[in-house]
User: What shape does this take?
Amino acid sequence: MISFLHLADLHLGWQPNFSDRELGVEIGAERDGFLKAVVDFALDPENKIDLVIIAGDLFESHRPVAKVIGQVMKELTRLVRGGIQLVTVPGNHDEITYPDSVYRQEQNRWPGFLVTNPSPQLSFRLDVNRKQVFVYSLAYTGGITGFTDTLKDFPREKEEGFHLAIFHGSYIDGDPGWELGTRSLPLDAKSLEQANYDYVALGHFHSHRVFQFGKGIGAYAGAIADKGFNDLGTGFLLKGIWRQNMGVQLERIPLTVKPKFEKLEIDLSRFNNSDELLSAVEELGRPDAVMQVELKGMRNFLFEPKNLRERLLPFFRYVEIIDQSFFLSAAELEKMAREKTITGFFLRGMLEKLKEAVTDEQKRLLNRALVKGIQALKGGDKS
Amino acid sequence: MKGVQWETISLEGFGPFTTKKGLKLEPGLNLLIAPNETGKSTIAEGLRAVIFGLPNSKDPVGFTTARFRSWQSTDNFAGEVSFMVAGKRYRISRDFASHRVVIEKKVFDLWEVQLETEHNPAALKTVGDYQSYLEKLFGLTSGKLFADTFYLTQPLPENDRLAEELRILLSGSGSDYENSLKLLEDEMAGFTKFLKERGFPRNKNNNRRLEELEEQILNLENGLKEARGQVDELQHVLVQANQVTEDLKSNQAQYQNKTAFYKAWQEGRRLQSRYEELLEKQVKLTKTKEELLFLEARINNVNQEIAGSYQDFLGLSKEFPEELEQMLKWEEEILRLTENALKLGKELEDQKDSLLRLSDRLAGFYHFQQNPHFVVDFKVFKRTEEKFLQELEQARLLLEELTDLRAKEEGKERSKKVFLKRTGAALAAAAVLSLLGGQTAGVSGLVVGFIIGSVLGWGLSHLIFGGKKAALLLPQTKSFLASLARRDSELNKAVKELTVAELQALLLSLDYLLNQKKSSSDPQGSYQEMAEAERLETLNATPLMKVRRELIDLAKLISPYRVDVSVETVEKDYLQYDQLRRESNFGESVAIKLEREIFQTEQKKKNLYTEINLVKERYPFLADPSSSEAGIIKERWQVFQGLKNEQAGLISEFQGILKGAQVKDLEELDFSFHEVQNQVIGIQKDLSDLGVKHPGLPAFIGNKTTGWEQLEEMYGKLEEELADLSLEEERLLEKQQELKLAQVTLEGKGAINIAQGEIELQELCNIKEGLLFELDALEIAYRELKSTITDYNLSYRERLGEQITFYFNKFTDSSRTIIVTENFETKVIAAGQERDVRQFSQGTKDLLFFALRLAVGDILAEDFQLPFVLDDPFLNYDHNRLQEVKRLLQS
Assistant: This one.
């Protein structure tokens, strides 16, 4: 039996692109701390981890700052010194291609096994718990790694043991609906299935997914930690246990990772004015909250999201406003449109356009135009 | 149109009305007159607030709860309005804080609730029912519209703001629609500079957010494109570099193998060459040994000869050769000195003989030797004698003349005689004395003698012939005699004592003497004779005797010459004498010099002998008389030196050969020979080993002719191959350098992270999309508003003008036409001419605005009619105007 942790897309060194750069740096540094929690978990004897797999994008960049490199080296070294085998595969964010890639710079000091071969091959043969582990992988290297459309060449030894493939690439069964560049390393589903690996440890897509590959299975571990409001982490570690002739069983181990990027939706139809909205959001505020507030629904008052955000900032560690709300209902607007003022005429014209609008996007645009018009007629944004 | 009549209004906790205050309104015109700050305007605002609601807001300025809630603490914040609509009475009650509103209808004196609801003018919910009711009652639901139509506040606007005010009223939003358009344009201009394509006349100059973003996106796209190219190219370069490195390694391996083989070949050639050298060396060593043995024998012979014959020279100090040489020089010097001494001796003898001869010759000139002034004396004698003879001749001539005179003058005979006598005496005395002087003192003696004689003669004659007579004599005679007398007194008294007879005898003697002198063949003898005659005649006269001796002495002075010998002869003799004397003196000095030189030579010889003896004392073997001569010693020494030189030469040759053979001695030569022998064997072994280690190498020792040329050809080919490999290495190194350069150049470009860049690009695109969305919205809003204003203009401007004209003419009782321009400015046409509004009085202008407000109310509230609320709009009206307005309003 071999227990392993399948990690991928840690993106250490990432920093949110906040307008407050210092806060971005602070939050990034806090986020990087989750590697220590992962290593602590792996080193905990109770968890009986034998092998740790990092399936790419350990770093956010191929050239992370020295402090991040130092911390990562320290933690991974701790892991290896703790008797745990470690295999690291460079990804597309920390691509080994770049001459100043951290993997090139630290290649000789890298803890455990670092995959550097540019084409799929048996990268390492490990001895874990007296079992042979065959590690098949590649480190995508621009200009060298060669394939057309998708990667189809998946070697496999015939010897008995745990045949483990680690790829930082795109496994999509079917048409992905978008163009996959070579750097996203598209993996040919059929070839991968035929390769008959016991386990395919995947990285690149941040959502956790599991696939069946012939007799074996494969999985995207998913990004554990949040990487912004639109890239929320899984919040769990993916642990695998391989048993001879029984394949791999996966288990999710919850892991608390800070900071947490929170998203909040607010329906504006229950507010009479921006003051009420402001008060309501203020009540939700926490000093440690990193929050994105999405405003939805119908409202009958005018306001500017950026002004609202400025008012809310003191109540949060970080807050941003996404306004998806609509100004007034069509019926209300129609009533207002009856006035024989220019405003009434303007509303009538806009309402006619809204009626003609087909898509939501058109409606949203016209509503926004209506709001901007009304705001202008009222002498500008005073909310 | 529905008619509405306000009946009551009450407010509590609203503005200055802390407690509930009510007002009853009558049909028709109601005038509220009260001091400032007592709540007139508040009542009007309260009417609007109760009916249309008061929005919650912290804004203390706007139409908000914050503005109207009484600052004095009161729980109630409410109002109530009752009114008549179409003959029915209604009441609206409102709690401003909770927005609770109740509409009641009076039915049979009872208030019946029609609607009780929450009406927040700013909220959406529950708005529908209440607003529907409002619309049913009043025809409008907007408080703002109400304010814009039926509520005129104080004061009326200034004339130049009429158009703006009109636009604000028509906007229905409280803002000038022109400003609204400008706001939209400005906001769009904040997004993009390309406004032309969005319906504006021209673009802006500088990039705005959208352009900056697009530029950022473009840069990032380019950066990504470049980064992809760079990293891929870099990898290509690295692959090539790896290949070149591999090629280089392969080439270097080949080169090393070939070089090793080549070096082995070279080593073989070297060993082979060395082998031949050693063989040659062996032959040379053998020959050297023979030469050395031969030289050794010769050296031994020389040594024996030296030991046998020149033992005494052995161990001599190193100064010996020099000393011997010096001794030889000394001996030669002695010999030379001896010869020189002999030569000098002979010269001395010759010189002495010569001196003897000179001495003999000088003897003939003894008188010069005895009298160094001989020539002078002789010359004195000769001059005295010549003078004496001349005087004698003159005396004789005088005597002859006197004789003649005696014959002619008898009377004077005496004087003449005396004179003659005196003259004759003087002459005689002079002659005698001259002769005496000439004999004793040469010529000078003659002269002195003559003078003295003359004086004496003259003196004697004076004495003899008397003074008076004598005074008649020639002055010369007298002088002569006087002198004679002085001389006589000084020199010789004997002369004074001469008698006349003696003087006469003297004259006779002189005469005789003259005769004798002239005729004598022996002048010397004549003087002698004269002396004898004098002696005979004047024997007893002492002065004469003295003169005579002097004369004799004078004659002796010029001896051995005769008195008749010429001065030239004497001078010639003297010159000869002087020459001889000089020669003699020189010869003597030469002789002395020669004697001195001879002496010095002898001294030198003596010194040299001393030196030689000192040397001999230092070298005992020189004591042997048979070999002590330096020349003999030198001959031996030279032989000895020859042997020594031969010995040294042989030894040097011997040593040279040893040195040439690089050995110290014969023993070492033997050792060297054996060593060479061993080396030969060693080379044979090395070559054998080399052949084993590098198969293919030729056998370097043996018969060269067999395949040797072919081997040399192979060797040459090997060199060419090495050169080719070397060139290839250079080419590869150059290529490697090029690739390194390309690599560092690409690395130096610092490619951005593609994955991050793509995410960033996506984010930027999202932002751009958002911006475009906003921009599109603004464009739509702008276009729509612009279009709306145009449409509104077309629909209402003309009608508005008519309504204003209607009211204005009614107020002013005139027939002017009011035109509203496209920009909603008003123009007045009176009597067919356009008049500027500013030309009117303030009251007229106020009426114009009032008419304009009423016209706007007509337009905006087309389907309904509410009572007007006029809050001090006629502030600027005069009494007449006020009365007119009052009349108008009442009508």
